[in-house]
TrEMBL record:
This is beta-lactamase. It catalyses: a beta-lactam + H2O = a substituted beta-amino acid. Residues 250-580 form the Penicillin-binding protein transpeptidase domain. Gene3D superfamilies: DD-peptidase/beta-lactamase superfamily, Penicillin-binding protein 2a (Domain 2). Keywords: Antibiotic resistance, Carboxypeptidase, Hydrolase, Membrane, Protease, Signal, Transferase. InterPro entries: Beta-lactam/transpept, Beta-lactam/transpept-like, PBP_dimer, PBP_dimer_sf, PCN-bd_Tpept. It is found in: Membrane. Belongs to the class-D beta-lactamase family. It is an enzyme of class 3 (hydrolase). Its EC number is 3.5.2.6. It comes from Hymenobacter metallicola. It comes from the Bacteria. Pfam families: PBP_dimer (PF03717), Transpeptidase (PF00905).
């Protein structure tokens, strides 16, 4: 056995020597400078303030360390045939564990002649050091400092350092899913890299021939140690939410509507946070890159989908603002306009329309908005429709839609809201009618929202018209979040019109509502929600849900989207309300334990 002792101390010594050399008079940085008043010639120098930079840690909202720079112990295996039984006895592993760990480290099944390194714990490394090499010869133990993850949860949030993910980038380029290399998402590690890394301090003196300083030739910069990041994520809630989604395809975003702080951020299928940078996870990464469910796609930020019936909330708020309807407006459930998937009582007002999620009701709500012809445009119905759709889009964009919200993650998608010009081009005529765009009324067609926008939409309604941009970092070092996350944004909708939506959202969770089975009334929590079932021509429908709780004093807003899962009421709503209950009460009531177990079982098996 060969042991390679830590090289970081030697590297640090070499670095300090190099920094000292930079500060000596023998290393001028540019041509000498002549003082015009005295004729004296000065040499400009750049002096590095010698100090060790330590990369900042990443902590959750309860100050539990999630990512830190720690020693990593790597065991390099010989390329020749290996006695796995002896290796297992040496490390205290069973034979199954040895084979699994080696298989996970191979870049593809059956790979031979490649170097395999296994991560060890400190205790396992000590067992290797005590070995006399007689048990398993030609083992090489190395120690290096690298980012260490203390939790498997929140992989898309924590991300990775690009310098530590080069093996993954090369691997991605060689696969059919090489686009993940272009869509790489380094999470907060990449987004806040400069603050986590810190920077050296530099002095810029002008030195005369005697070594004396005469002013400076550039502004000095102060040494800045790497800053810790304090996340908004609740690790326990995050881990719980990941168990509810597991190997399904979809997302869950939970945030505090009062602050915009993201409490849980799940992109499913989920995978352990260390997978991308771990040297012994090449086989796992290969599976992730080729998996049909695209687990490496950061769904809440990067993937925009039709929101389905949850978008009826936005349409209703805009229609109220534009005086196209009132809270008491009644419309028939006319199946000739658009089908309604279930039988229900008449939509005698907006509350009933939301409670039963009546498609014909909201078809007519949107029609009242688009086909409204003011007296000034009485002779130009085409112009009126264009103006009304443009106004609808203007109000909808004030929700943060059709634009990036500015979350502190790389590559956020903007989503999409159609314009009149878009339909002019798509329909090849300016004389399109409401009937050709009615799918907007039920959140289908050309509308696309991201998971962050869906959760923020729920937060806006919870706040009755305003929001703070969703964000993942609540503190940088001893300071707060980035300044833009502390500026309140207001929509163009009056608060009274948002207030008019809440009774219908509460009714959704009550007896006869589309999500009455997901009520939390038994534990004294009034949930306001809206279900959505998104039609999908390529398979089973997608399930959606947005909501907040408690309804009159919201502390959490949640958006859930599950691909090919069917009805929002039966698939998405249960996940959302259990995350709400977990956050507000700390545990799930016994009444829902069986329900919880069934959902987690489905999540584990990916259906």
């Amino acid at each position: 056995m060969r042991i390679v002792y830590p090289r970081w101390k030697n590297a640090l010594s070499i670095l300090l020597v190099a920094l000292t050399a930079c500060s000596t008079p023998d290393h001028p940085t540019s041509a000498p400078v002549k003082d015009p008043s005295t004729g004296e010639t000065y040499t400009p120098r750049r002096v590095v303030v010698a100090d060790s930079l330590i990369r900042g840690r990443i902590l959750d909202r309860n100050d539990s360390v999630l990512v830190d720079t720690r020693p990593q112990y790597l065991l390099k295996l010989p390329r020749r045939a290996l006695d796995t039984l002896a290796l297992g006895e040496l490390l205290g592993w069973d034979s199954t564990t040895v084979r699994r760990r080696i298989q996970e480290a191979l870049p593809y099944p059956g790979a031979y002649g490649v170097t395999v390194q296994l991560r060890l714990t400190r205790k396992e490394a000590e067992r290797i050091r005590r070995d006399s090499s007689a048990t398993v010869p030609q083992l090489t133990l190395t120690e290096r400092y690298q980012r260490a993850y203390t939790t498997p949860a929140a992989a898309p949030v924590l991300g990775y350092r690009n310098t530590e993910a080069q093996a993954f980038f090369r691997q991605a380029k060689r696969t059919g899913r090489g686009r993940f290399y272009r869509l790489r998402n380094g999470g907060v590690e990449a987004y806040y890299n400069g603050l986590l890394s810190g920077h050296h301090g530099y002095l810029h003196p002008l030195i005369d021939k005697k070594g004396q300083q005469h002013g400076t030739w550039a502004k000095d910069t102060a040494f800045q140690q790497g800053q810790d990041l304090h996340l908004t994520i609740d690790t326990n809630l995050q881990a719980y939410a990941e168990k509810l989604l597991g190997n399904r395809r979809g997302y869950l975003v939970a945030l505090d509507p009062r602050t915009g702080e993201i409490l849980a951020y799940v992109s499913a299928p989920v995978y352990p946070a260390a997978t991308i940078t771990a040297p012994d996870q090449a086989g796992v990464r290969a599976e992730l890159l080729e998996h049909e469910s695209l687990p490496l796609l950061n769904r809440p930020a990067m993937l925009a989908n039709p929101p389905g019936s949850v978008f009826k909330l936005v349409n209703a708020a805009i229609a109220l603002q534009m005086h196209a309807i009132t809270p008491g407006s009644a419309f028939r459930c006319d199946q000739s306009l658009v089908s309604c998937v279930h039988r229900h009582k008449p939509g005698k007002n907006l509350t009933a329309g939301l409670k039963y999620s009546c498609n014909p009701y909201f078809y007519q709500v949107m029609q009242s908005l688009i086909d409204c012809v003011p007296d000034s445009l009485a002779q130009d119905t085409v112009g009126a429709r264009h103006a009304n759709l443009a106004q609808w889009r203007r109000y909808a964009r004030s929700f943060g839609l059709d634009s990036v919200l500015g979350v502190d993650l790389p590559r956020e998608a903007p989503g999409f809201l159609p314009t009149p010009a878009y339909y002019d081009k798509a329909r090849r005529t300016r004389r399109w009618t409401y009937r050709s765009i009615y799918s907007l009324s039920i959140g289908q067609g050309e509308i696309n929202l991201t998971g962050l926008q869906m959760a923020n939409m729920a937060a806006i309604i919870a706040n009755r018209g305003w929001y703070y941009p969703p964000h993942l970092v609540r503190g940088i070092g001893e300071n707060g979040p980035l300044a833009r996350f502390t500026r309140k944004r207001h929509t163009l909708i009056d608060s009274a019109n948002f207030e008019a939506l809440v009774p219908g959202m509460v009714a959704v969770m009550q007896r006869g509502g589309t999500a009455d089975a997901s009520s939390l009334a038994d534990v004294g929590i009034t949930v306001a929600g809206k279900t959505g079932t998104v039609e999908n021509d390529e398979g089973d429908d997608h399930a959606a849900f947005v909501g907040f709780a408690p309804a009159n004093n919201p502390k959490i807003a949640v958006a859930v989207y599950l691909e090919n899962a069917g009805f929002g009421a039966t698939a998405a709503a249960p996940c959302a309300v259990m995350v709400m209950e977990k956050h507000l009460r700390g545990h799930i009531a016994p009444k829902r334990k069986r329900w919880e177990k069934r959902i987690q079982h489905r999540a584990k098996n990916g259906y």
